[in-house]
Write a structure and sequence with these properties.
single chain; alpha/beta; Rossmann fold; 2 domains; two-stranded parallel sheet; 7 strands
């Protein structure tokens, strides 16, 4: 269940086969259908019903990740079926899953990438046998398979760049930048020493002059010590 929850929270597609009657250790759970699961065949015993589900999930996947105690009856059966079908198996111990999620997530990602797994089957111990495992697996899946979501999103991005819209540009005519410029903008963009002289801060003004400015030819003013009038 943890694998379904984690994948769904990532926005990844989920699915698989549930035991006949939607049976879980907590009773029937038809809500499993919202994860895309279908109901499996019923066996002559409860164990056979679960085993039929396990076989279908292994058959319809590219590899199986088992979380928890691999020596439990259910995990042993999962390993045997996967080996018989020639499907790769990853085992993440209970200790690692519960107490070292980053390592477990890295193991899961490496397993998926190494075996080029497109459909992953996640199995493990029941919550009653390993308290906290379901939530841990959900978190591990979210961490380990987050890159899959990024890859899916990148497919929605156009590969060809959108042509830039051509825009015409109009360049304004040039103006003379000078404190005596007839253009107001040219006046305000010059040195503020003209105003400073008017209010008595300095004893002279230092207008800005530029090359080819006939209205205000450039001069050589040299250094000037500005006395402090305060």
């Amino acid at each position: 269940m943890g694998g379904l929850i984690g994948a769904a929270l990532l926005g990844l597609p989920t699915g698989g086969t549930a035991a006949a009657g939607w049976v879980t250790e907590n009773g029937a759970n038809p809500n499993l259908q919202k994860y895309g699961l279908i109901e499996g065949e019923k066996g002559s015993t409860a164990v056979e019903t679960y085993n039929k589900r396990t076989i279908e999930n292994i058959r319809n996947s590219d590899g199986t990740a088992i979380f928890g105690n691999i020596n439990s009856p259910g995990s042993k059966f999962t390993v045997k079926v996967a080996q018989d079908m020639g499907k790769p198996i990853l085992h993440v111990t209970t200790e690692t899953a519960l107490n070292d999620k980053p390592t477990a997530a890295r193991q899961l990602r490496d397993f998926v990438e190494k075996n080029n797994i497109q459909t992953l089957n996640i199995a493990g111990n029941r919550e009653s046998k390993a308290p906290g495992l379901q939530a841990a697996v959900a978190e591990i899946v979210q961490i380990g398979l987050a890159y899959q979501k990024n890859q899916d999103n990148s497919q929605d991005v156009p590969t060809s760049p959108t042509p830039a819209t051509s825009q015409s540009k109009t360049i304004a005519p040039g103006i003379n930048l000078s404190s005596r410029s007839p253009d107001p903008l040219g006046g305000v963009l010059t040195s503020t020493t003209v105003k400073a002289k008017q209010i008595g801060t300095t004893d002279k003004e230092y207008p800005v002059s530029f090359r080819d400015n006939k209205a205000m030819p450039a001069g050589n003013y040299g250094r000037k010590l500005i006395p402090n009038r305060n």
